[in-house]
Amino acid sequence: MRSVFAFPVRPQGEIQALLDQAGQRSEIVPGRVEWIIDNVLWIRVRADVEGLYADWDSDAIVALTTAVGSRPSYAVIADVSGRVAGHPEVACFLHVVIGSGGHAMDDYSEDVWTYEQITAGVRATDGRLSSIMTPASVARPQRATSGRRVRPPVLGRGWVSR
């Protein structure tokens, strides 16, 4: 399973409302809300006070804090199923969560991107983009991994047609 960490500029409550509209809300563990998108993404919101950075390398925290300007108080984390590529779903997730501002990281490097850098294909410090952040999939989400058509991302309407 791969993970994408999004650090939106929007308030946490607003992001959670968007996720409520986009995915199936689940609370398997009391107090731990998750959203499932097309059985490809499992999304959760985690706050700094809940131990968000507890298992992070200090270099990754420094890279994030430097890029953002301060240590984000929360993240929206999308775990991508290991059985599919999930690029269209991740593309839409990033558009909804940080398309209007914010930063993203994946669990492959300590590089931090804005949505604009991702869609423009800006390369990581080692000259590559992680496969989960492939700019072509972010710029042109066409078909969900499940074979269903993916609507162009529209805030408040969900992002994978049902």
The unreliable regions are 135-162
Basic shape: globular
The separation of the N and C termini measures 24 Å
What is the average per-residue confidence, as pLDDT, rounded to a whole number?
A: 79
Order of neighbouring strands in the sheet with most strands: 2-3-4-5-1-6-7
- Give a short account of the largest sheet: 7 strands, antiparallel
Strand content: 15-25%
User: Helix share of residues?
Assistant: 25-40%
> How many helical stretches?
5
Estimated structural class: alpha+beta
Rg is 15 Å
Please count the beta strands (DSSP E, at least 2 residues each).
7
Give the helices and strands as they follow along the chain: EHEEEHEHEEHH
Description:
This protein has helices at residues 12-22, 58-68, 87-98, 115-120, 135-139, and strands at residues 2-8, 24-29, 32-37, 41-47, 74-80, 102-106, 113-114. It has 162 residues and is α+β, with helices and mostly antiparallel strands. Strand 3 (32-37) and strand 4 form a beta hairpin.
